[in-house]
Amino acid sequence: MLVAGLTGNIGMGKSYVLSVFEGLGAITIDSDGIVDILMRDRLIIKKIAGLLGKEVIKRNGGLDKAVIANIIFNNNMLRAKLEALLHPLVFKKIDSFLAGISKKKCIVIVEVPLLFEGNYQKYFDRTITVYTNKKTAFERLKLAGISKVQALKRMNAQMPITNKKKLAEYTIDNSGTKLNTRRQVKLIYRSLFEEMVQI
């Protein structure tokens, strides 16, 4: 088994790249998806409300992600505390999943937005950074209903993409067409596959 961490900044296409890897035969894990599951847990909801305030809880008892985002992207200390609460639980879930397939000859791609910010590269055999220019990211986020002001706050909360590109073993330029991106992903997958069969 070879495990690669996939990262990039908001609006740069990590999820699309992850789906391409999956189409090529990789086992994929979306850490944001794990966070979504955790945030439906009653105990986690209680802890987050204790940290950020009761206004993060909706009438149905679930968490209001928009309110949470507004709070944490305007308060670095609270964002760090929320990450300190959730990230160990996310990696516990990832570790549990990987333990169940550890004897298989396979490639696993784990999407981790804050891979380098949290110094999580030690968990992975290889790291991959997806990037675009800011203009392209803003345009994509606008289509997703995220304003430029909101997008800037979220980008500023992440490590500059130029740094992430330098830290990763592989990079994918997702500024162009989907076909161009798929070509890059295929080359990386082939390289990872060749490395995996030798393990």
* Adjacency order of strands in the biggest sheet: 2-3-1-4-5
Helix content: 55-70%
Overall geometric form: globular
Mean pLDDT score: 94
In the CATH hierarchy, the third-tier topology is known as Rossmann fold
CATH class reads: Alpha Beta
- Domain unit count: 1
Largest sheet: 5 strands, parallel
Helix-strand string: EHEHHHHEEHHHEH
Ranges where pLDDT stays below 50 over 5 or more residues in a row are none
Total DSSP helices: 9
User: Which structural class best describes the helix and strand composition?
Assistant: alpha/beta
Distance between the termini: 8 Å
CATH superfamily: P-loop containing nucleotide triphosphate hydrolases
What is the total tally of β strands? 5
Content of β-strand: 5-15%
Level-2 CATH architecture: 3-Layer(aba) Sandwich
C-alpha Rg (nearest Å) = 17 Å
